[in-house]
Structures are given as C-alpha cells and as structure tokens.
Here is the input.
Amino acid sequence: MQRLKERGHDDGELVVRADGTQALKVKKRKRRSKQPHKEEQKRVQQLRLIQLAIAFVVFSGLVAAMAGLLFYYNSSAYREGIRGKLAACTAADVDMSEFSVTPSKATCASSSFTWPEGNYLRSLQLASTAADLELASFVGKKWGGSGVVAKSGSLSFSNCVDGKSKRGKTEAKTTGFPFEFSNYRCEKLLITGLAEDMKPWLSVESTEGTLIKTVKGSETRFVGGLIKIRGFHPMKLDRGTINFESGQMNISSLRCIPVDQEFGQLDIKNSVDLYSGKNSVLELALSEFPLGVLLGDGMDSVMGGSINTSSEAVNRVLSFTPGDYGSYKISIGFSGCKKDPLTFKGFPFLSELSRELQGQQYVDNFVFEDAAAGELIRTATEVHLKSLHLESKNQFVIKGEVILKDGEFSGQLNVGLGLALLADPQCNKKLRAVFANQSKGYGWCQVTLSGTSAMAEDNFATLLKQSVANNAAAAHPEKAASGAPSIEEELGNE
Here is the structure.
C-alpha cells in the first residue's frame, strides 16, 4: 500500500475505508458495443445451424421420396407397368410373380414369356431373378446396374406358322428397352427345340446363357452345357456367340466338344434367315472329332474313330430350312486322324476273314492308319458313308459306300486283300478264288451289304460257297454234268 501511495496507479484511486483500511478503487470500464471476433463466432454458429436444418430437411425429403418410390415400385400398378414394357419390347405375353424392390436390388420369384404361333420362340421361364440397382438409376427413368441374374430357366422354340401373329397382345412401342443393365444372364438354362409333332429334336441342358443388348439387336453368349440332337450322340457345348438382328441369326462361333474324349472339336458358323422360308447353310469344321457322334445309333456300330476336315473343302456344310427338322442335310468330306484312327467293324465278312486268315484284328475294330477318308451325307432319314477309302498298306483295303436308311443297311464295298496274304500257303483256296480279281497289289471282291442296325449282314459267305462249287465243278467236270455234290458237302470236305 505504501508503494501504491508513492507510485500511484493509473487505473484506480487509493481510498480509506470507514474501518481505517485502505484499498484501490478501480474505475468501471464501459463495455464496447462492437466485438468483431465474438460476432464472427455467432455468425458461424448460425450458419451451421442453418446448414444442419437444410440437411435435415433434404434428408427427410429424400427419405420421404425413397419411401414413396419404394411404395410405388412395390405396388401392383408399377409391376403392371414393368410387365407391359417387357411385353412391348419382347413381343411376348409376360407374367410375373413376387416382384419386390429395395434401393439396392430388385427381385422376382418367377417370370414367364409366351409367344404366339407366328414366332419361332414359344416360351421362356425364369426363376429366382435378381438385379443389383445403381442408386442413380433407382430414382431415374430407367433401371441400370451390373446385370440381371436368374438362377435357372427354360427356353423353348419351334417352327413358326405362316400367317399367324409374331407378337403377343401388347402393341410395340418406340420407347426402347425399359432397362439399361450391362447384361442379362441365366446361370442354368435349358433350351428345347420342338419338332412339328411337338416332341424335342434338340435340347441344350444346363448351359449358362448371357444376353447383351447392342445397337443393332442383341448378342447371346453360351458357356457349357450338354447338347442332345435327335438321332445323334450327345456332345458338350464349349462356348458359343450368336447375334440376333432384324430376323437374322448370325452364329459368330459355336464350338462343341466330345463327352467321353479329352480332345476334338466341332466348330459351326454362318448366318440364318429365320423368317424367309429359304434354305440356310452353316459351315462346319472338325478337328479330331469322334465320327460316331455324327453317325448316331446304328451306323456307329460300323465305323469308329475321329475325323478331320480340310479348311479348303467345300463339302463341310449343314443345310436346313429354319423350323423344319426334316429338311436338314449334313455333307462332310473327312479324313482320319493319327491320334484316334478310323476303324471298320460289325459286318459278317470281317469275321469270315478273321477265321480264314487266322487274324483276330479283322473282327475286332480293324484299324486303318495308312489311309482313311470318305464323305458323310446325313439327312433326317438316311446316313450315307460314300467314297470310303480305308487302307492298311499291303494288307487290307475297303472302298465303297455304306447306307443306313429306316434302320436297314445297303451298299457295296470293294474289299481288297494283299497279294502276299493270298499267296501264303496257309491261305484257303476258296479265299483265293473269291479274291481272284487282282489289281494294284491286291486281290479284290465285291461285298453287298444288307441287314439291320441290330444285325448287319452281307453276301460274303455266299461268295465263299460259290467259290467252293466253282472249284468242285472245275476239278470234276463229269460230276458236274451228271450230278455234282451239294455246296454243303463240299464245305464239309474242306
């Protein structure tokens, strides 16, 4: 206090209280009317409150809008609108069940598409379909996203009826496809082709099918599956790409592979005009592909092995009229392959040769490794192997044709045995007589084929009997004139 007395104080006055004590009396300061830093804090707080209020309003609006959209998307009216749009762009009568929507996904328990008789397509059934939705598309005019996936489905088609409508009850619209998904996929699809009797002539089981919309139409891709065609053996579908544009089916590539073989392939490509009623031609290319798959039941009991086709050959085609199963015709010029050589079997003359020549290989799938070529002509009623040339050099050769029609064999084969075999002392004389016609290092005889696919027959045994009779007549001309022994007796003597 003494120091304050001596020095003074600018901010106050030294006073003496009533009790004698001293104190510093400070003058009150007036508060300034303006405080910029505090006013700035108030403005920031107010702005934040306004922003929070706006955000809350916007969020509430979005929630209300989303709730409204969800309510609308799950309503029967919207489901009917989707059904109508699908019907308009697919030309089918559409039915849907258990259709539901969330902001991220749309699902449908089952859906069906049915086309009238004027269309090649008959029906499409899809089960457990789901689509992941993009948020922007959820509130937009068209749904879009990574893709639509169905767990399973079945597609059937058959011949269209001229004069009948190609569209269902819903008229076509110019608004385009109602969705903008990248692809539409079915994980396990069954495809069935129906003949005029409405019985399946084609089925593709458990393939994965993906439809991709393009500017001109659509592209369909297939991966995996088992192909079954009436009259043919089953084969696997490796992969395929087919484009559909304005009534045209353009097969960019379709590759089939064997079921029971780790190598070999059949490639198919070209375009098909679905509604012109004209004949269409597909190009075929085979590489080490089993011949038995194309021969089918019956003829596969005669020939086996795998074949190749030359890229320069013109006779490797499949021609048909779309929708008419009975119109198809396959023409394939082929050659054998070293990995799985061609074999010939099944006819009795092979057993006769095996017995006469003491060679088991003649009766057990004789393998032709030196030369193997021919042409396969196949229709709905006939399998024709023509221009056959099967050869094991200096031993055995078969040339000619084999025909299987309505389950019955016909045709003629020129069968040749090497002259060294015929000159062997152990070779039976009657065999030499049958193969008496010698040319190009072989003795030849002509065998006529007959019988059924269950029991093939030929006239080789008859030729052997005739040779016995001819030999007997030549050896005993007087007996032949007076009364020669029977063929059975001569065979007994042999």
